[in-house]
Known about the structure:
By secondary structure, the protein is of the alpha/beta class. Strand 11 (262-266) and strand 12 (269-273) form a beta hairpin. The two termini are 43 Å apart.
Amino acid sequence: MKIKYLFYSLAVAAAAVSCSNGKPSDGEHVLHILTTNDVHGSWFDSTYVGGGIKNSLYAVNHYIDSVRNEFGGENVLLIDAGDCLQGDNGAYYYNYVDTESEHLFPQLMNYMCYDAVVVGNHDIETGHEVYDRVAAELDKYGIPFLAGNAIRNDNGKPYFQEYKVFNKAGLKVVVAGYTNANMSAWLTESLWSGMTFKSLLPLVQESVDRITAKENPDLFIVAVHSGSGEGDGSMLESQGLDLFYSLKGVDAVITSHDHSALIKNENDMLFLNSGSHSRNLCHGTISVSVEGGKVVSKSNDVELIPVNANNVDTQMRDAFHKHFSTVKAFTVRTVGRLTDDLVTRDAYAGMCGYVNLVHAIGLQFAELSFAAPLTFNGTVTKGDIIYNDLFTIYPFENQLFVMELSGKEIKNYMELSYDRWINTVSDLKAAAAGKSSEHVLKIRPGVDQRTSQTRWSFENRSYNFDSTAGLNYTVDVTKPNGSRINIESMADGSAFDESKMYKVAVTSYRSGGEQMKAGTGIEDTDSRIVERYPEYREMIYKYLEKNGVIDPAQIAAQPNLGHWSFIPEADAAAAIARDMKLLFE
């Protein structure tokens, strides 16, 4: 590892010499930009149980090394656009369990010779102790942790580094990084105390102008932890295309957050979003012609590279085997018992033990609960539960928030959630019998942006399919949006009142997200948060410590859980079963 890093450092030094006079040499220069984002702890290539192979940074590095070997490390710029520190056992272990050793993430970034890393919202979610430590350790390796719009409250300066200048491909290249502007709506203030997150519009353009005037770079790259969005300025958390269509003086926009792989090459600018979880790598190239020390022309290209999980950097695997073994030993320990299987995909068809468990945690603190399936397709089998299983049940470090919502706002939110989940079916009997092209679940065939595979998939993100606990209600799949939900009563049989205010358990991510605002019509959702509790996964762990067992049948019988179903019941169930077969078989 040290030899590899030394060789790369020497190459970078050579590139720095080539433009040490402040002007690039005449001729052709080609910069290769490699990007990752939303890795979410997909560091190791082996599952902790069963020895399965999964997507990993080891496989990503196999491809990165091939590019460096072909084009020269001095011509390659490697950037990650954030959400690095959360989502897998390894990240959890080095965030919260082993807090004395050097954090593993900076070591991985150093080994892979990353040039810059952007701060993501899930990185901030880990708390000051974690991300401050990581930022310092990255800095030790000369890798900036970038977030130019996270502004300190005490002096008005960025809390993290805003940009860094690189000498790559004989060119002076600026990389400026910014994090998600909607951060404070999702996370409790203690996690981001001391700073304010500003909108990327117009801040990034103002920053580009200021930095360009100071540094006079040959190329300028903006990397943001923000979703692609629609490019119409409508979503604070997804400003990627807003920037792409509006920025001047920028050669590439690297974006992230929404886990949707997307590349564009328009108007002499590249757009790169590699998706998530080490599944893909974006490879952009900028070819520059220089005459008289000045850039006279540029041409661009970009491709999305599916990463083969089986082709790994075996030397990297060996270098970090000890870390993997340590994490595995921690996460395979038994923490309780499960009386029946929890199958996450069952959530798309109706009530199920998996989502019931999440609801039950929320109902300890509120009258109602909103919860969605956060693992797309996973199973925890009955028997002993190991700590690793808790990541299947709840993969994110989302906190539990309690919001006050009126009955009308709750009803409207439920309508929106199910509208993203199901269609209105005109001939349900035909759909149930397979004699119609209609589908109850809102699914379509095509290339799944998250996996790059051709398959049936949901039109919308399944982690937004919130059901509600604490009520008795039905969802009529033959009726249009706005009239599908019939709330019969509260779980205890008492009347549900649209004019009354109720306490509702939600995730910290949901509380300030686009879906909550769109569904309820509340713009300042933060003002409705009345209580904040620890992370859901931690509370599931505490539930096991107290009870020793998760019994889905016992949870389903809780009087405060309530009941819901799709109707007309028999035909809806048959049609959904056909849709589920398309999705999963």
